[in-house]
Amino acid sequence: MASTVNVMRAIWLDPFSPLDESDKAQLRLAGIDAFCVNTLGELNLALSRAHVVVVRLAQSAELMHEVQTLITQLGSLVPVVCRVDRDDMDVVVDAMRSGALHVVPCDEWNVSSWQQVVGMLRTVAPSSKNKSYVFVDPVSQHLLALAQRVAQANVSTLLVGPTGAGKEVIARVLHESSGRAKGPFIAMNCAAMPEHLIEDMLFGHEKGAFTGAVKDYKGIFEQAQGGTVFLDEIGEMPMHLQAKLLRVLQERKITRLGGETAVSVDIRVVAATNKDLRQAIDEREFREDLYFRISTFRLRIQPLRERPLDIMPLVMQSLARHNDSGVPYSVTAEAQQLLQAYPWPGNVRELENVVQRAVVLCTGQTITPAHLLFDEMSSLVRHEQTLAPVTPMVREEQSAVQPVQPFQGDAAPVWEPHQPVMEREVSATEPPAAFSVTAALPQTPDIDAAPVNLQDVIKSSEHAVIMTAIQNTDSREEAARLLGISPRTLRYKLAQLRERGLMLNAA
Length: 507
Fold this sequence. Notes:
Layout: E1 8-13, H1 21-30, E2 32-37, H2 40-46, E3 52-56, H3 62-73, E4 80-84, H4 89-97, E5 102-105, H5 111-124, H6 138-151, E6 157-160, H7 167-176, E7 185-189, H8 195-203, E8 204-205, E9 217-218, H9 220-223, E10 228-232, H10 239-251, E11 253-254, E12 263-264, E13 268-273, H11 277-282, H12 288-294, E14 297-300, H13 311-321, E15 330-331, H14 333-341, H15 347-361, E16 366-367, H16 377-387, H17 393-401, H18 454-471, H19 476-483, H20 487-499
Helix pairs in contact: 1-5, 6-7, 10-12, 13-15, 16-18, 17-18, 18-19, 19-20
């Protein structure tokens, strides 16, 4: 019998046939202790205790898709093994495309076969711990698969994409999926460091190289021996340092400031930029020879609006990260619609800001449209006002004073994460317990009312949040600080609301 120290805990999901004791005994001999569940809800509760999920598929890989979605929502990277009928090759292919680590025939109980599965699991286990990456959208999944393949080759890689799209996440995937995973990963933003410090940070210095250099200092290239150096915003690197970086990539040697001896370095360089480096080359702001050196393989990270299926998993992951109550948040269907309709010009970084504001404004555990404050909210409203037809003032008042409420029951699907939460430091601007946006909203929604469009929801959300903030604070300045805007911006928004004829009792 396999040692309990080396036993893999497996969640066994088989809605078609139970796992009998003889089968369990065979699995134990192979090093697998199986815990049986019958539904996704049971899987949700048991997932934190598992090393692997084993799923039985019938004529399609639909159940595999649902399992993978659940695992991603919970911020887990537990590998999945699928059991499939021997003659269902289409299902096998779909399962592998969906991320299955391995596929086993559903009638296979040979100990050696399952020992191979256990061996495979042990090789991937170290790289899967403590990960919280989200790759749900097919665009993201394709990028992940490509990054993992590129990681196997020791080549310089250039990541291209807008600010806040997740370039450092992909850089870490490249590192953790490579043979350098046990080595250090060191990131540096070339735009965030003063020019006179970048060279010292990268190359280090010898004692006495300049005033204040009281001892030898190893730069990032030396610190990352055997690992990966991530150079973010490489387009902002000064020209004279570009020449030195080119030498590092060509010769794999560096010379410290004030030093004379070249030091060999064993590193992989991953660079990232949100600039058009081709244009920078034409404008003589970037070296063409360096460009070809760092872009041996080029990966493009799409903006968040082009991978919409990542939005809600990212939201739920962020909510869990900022939750200090121990009770998971849920998001109403109307709030989900707003989150998915918003263009996210600031990408994942902006999404984090929106979620944090929602956590501050929400005193319960249900996120509604009233809790969502977008960075580009006012400009979005003005844009839609210029396009929308003029409607009677009475209808506008009704939509403003009666914001959309979540439907009860089966009409409104709700995302409910159950992953462990992390402690959060309470902000100085966090409202008192009495502060509640939802308290000002009607408790019973009018489910027979006409559908409310995005413009109506945005207007009503902004009005409800502003009014509640004013009513629950002692001054305009305090209300503006709570809302995360300047007092001047608050005065401007109040003037806009008055122009629309809304009731501003406290304004």
